[in-house]
Amino acid sequence: MNGFMRDSSIVFRRQIRMNLRNPAWVLIGVFQPVLYLLLFGPLLKPLVAQFPGGADNAYTFLVPGLLVQLGLFGAFFAGFSLIGEWREGVIEAERVTPASRGSLLVGRLMRDVLQLFVQSLILVLLGLAIGMRGSFDGIVLGIVITLVIGGACAAASNALGMATKSEDVMAPVINIVMMPVLLLSGILLPMTLGPDWLKRVSDFMPTRWITDAIRDVFAGDVANGTVLSGSLAALVFLALAAWWGVSTFQKDDA
């Protein structure tokens, strides 16, 4: 275990150095949550205040949804950088070292989760500054759930990148998956605004459970079935995605 964590930390430090050498990506990663809230917030605030069953504070509804959006959409682009590393021979060079294949993935996931944590923290602090209300414990738990689903999406993205080895293939796959997820998860708009058949479909979306769970914990309602089902869904996603990611790194022809 000590060797595995040492190898993972080496990969993590290398990935961080690569990010810091390209400050444009660092700035984009920092300003992305700010732009989400400042641009989407004023646009959606009047709608959130009007729909039935909405939060008593519009930003208490919007910020959790934007956290899920960051965890899903932001982390799903992690595989694109992996494709570039594979093309440059970095992955093959790492795989001939004594480091375990799993650590090659975990080290990258540590970088992705750290970036998501910084983005989430900025988003929450900005939300609080402009009027969001929420319990401290609930906000902490909401960020933790966001990091879990973000880690799952990053692992899946890395696995998809290793499987396709092509940005031209990976980009449309992500778009096909993400568009219905964005709609049916109620990330930006509540599903109560849609027709009954659409609401019934969204009831089977695990990402909808995760979105509802984070909204509930932000509102201080921690002990309910929605939070439990959303948390379990995030953990199951992480376990499956990590297994897929490690499997792709272990393949000799990957």
From TrEMBL:
<keyword id="KW-0046">Antibiotic resistance</keyword>
<feature type="transmembrane region" description="Helical">
    <location>
        <begin position="173"/>
        <end position="193"/>
    </location>
</feature>
<dbReference type="InterPro" id="IPR000412">
    <property type="entry name" value="ABC_2_transport"/>
</dbReference>
<protein>
    <recommendedName>
        <fullName>Transport permease protein</fullName>
    </recommendedName>
</protein>
<dbReference type="GO" id="GO:0043190">
    <property type="term" value="C:ATP-binding cassette (ABC) transporter complex"/>
</dbReference>
<feature type="transmembrane region" description="Helical">
    <location>
        <begin position="227"/>
        <end position="246"/>
    </location>
</feature>
<dbReference type="InterPro" id="IPR013525">
    <property type="entry name" value="ABC2_TM"/>
</dbReference>
<dbReference type="GO" id="GO:0140359">
    <property type="term" value="F:ABC-type transporter activity"/>
</dbReference>
<keyword id="KW-0813">Transport</keyword>
<keyword id="KW-1003">Cell membrane</keyword>
<feature type="domain" description="ABC transmembrane type-2">
    <location>
        <begin position="24"/>
        <end position="252"/>
    </location>
</feature>
<keyword id="KW-0472">Membrane</keyword>
<dbReference type="Pfam" id="PF01061">
    <property type="entry name" value="ABC2_membrane"/>
</dbReference>
<feature type="transmembrane region" description="Helical">
    <location>
        <begin position="138"/>
        <end position="161"/>
    </location>
</feature>
<feature type="transmembrane region" description="Helical">
    <location>
        <begin position="113"/>
        <end position="132"/>
    </location>
</feature>
<keyword id="KW-1133">Transmembrane helix</keyword>
<feature type="transmembrane region" description="Helical">
    <location>
        <begin position="59"/>
        <end position="83"/>
    </location>
</feature>
<keyword id="KW-0812">Transmembrane</keyword>
<dbReference type="GO" id="GO:0046677">
    <property type="term" value="P:response to antibiotic"/>
</dbReference>
<feature type="transmembrane region" description="Helical">
    <location>
        <begin position="20"/>
        <end position="39"/>
    </location>
</feature>
<dbReference type="InterPro" id="IPR047817">
    <property type="entry name" value="ABC2_TM_bact-type"/>
</dbReference>
<dbReference type="InterPro" id="IPR051784">
    <property type="entry name" value="Nod_factor_ABC_transporter"/>
</dbReference>
<comment type="similarity">
    <text>Belongs to the ABC-2 integral membrane protein family.</text>
</comment>
